[in-house]
Amino acid sequence: MPGTRFGALIPAAVLIVLGVLFLLDNLNAIAADSVWSVAWPSIMILLGLWLFGLGPRFVGVALFALGLVFLGINIGILPDDTLSNWWPLFLIGGGVWLLLSWRHGGRRSKKTPRTDTGDAIDLNIAFGEADRSVTSKTFRGGSVTVKFGEANLDLRQADMSHEGATLDISIAFGEAKVRLPPTWVLRMDGEPVLGEIADRRTAKPSEGPVLTVRARVSFGSLKVED
Known about the structure:
Layout: H1 2-26, H2 32-54, H3 57-74, H4 82-86, H5 88-104, E1 114-116, E2 120-126, E3 129-134, E4 141-147, E5 150-154, E6 165-172, E7 175-179, E8 185-189, E9 196-199, E10 210-218, E11 221-225
């Protein structure tokens, strides 16, 4: 997979950068205290590139930009007060990213979701993304937690247990998409904080198996689709 190959390059790049810096130090080309001041922003930049390639992209862009700023300050290209004056740009960038993700529905390349056959889902994502397809015929619910990441949960091949199902979803600086069978009744409970909770299904039945979603969304979005 391209993403896997890209991610494998990052540790190699980190070793090369560190090796070059310490070699220059040994040759007295740069001062010893300058090695670390250049190394750690460089690692941030490489980590940002890695996250941009694997997701979530906004976090990757933010780390990349911060690494460039710190590197510029440490080598004297940028003034020392650059970050204190311009940090609101990161808030603006986060807002723009959220707007674009809502407007375009999180459009991205297609991936084959991992199949989960269990009766309950337990999905925890931090600084990454995950795709799950549930095929259980007695689905009872579970929990989905997203922090600085993205989750896609496909329940269209699942059947619910006779008592119904409850799904707890917690999102902070991320997004989640849940896809339901057309016969399921959805009961949504939750209020977003600077975010979005949306039921975008075309079919919204009033009778049938009931899925209760308890949502907590801060600086992110939860979308339910069919």
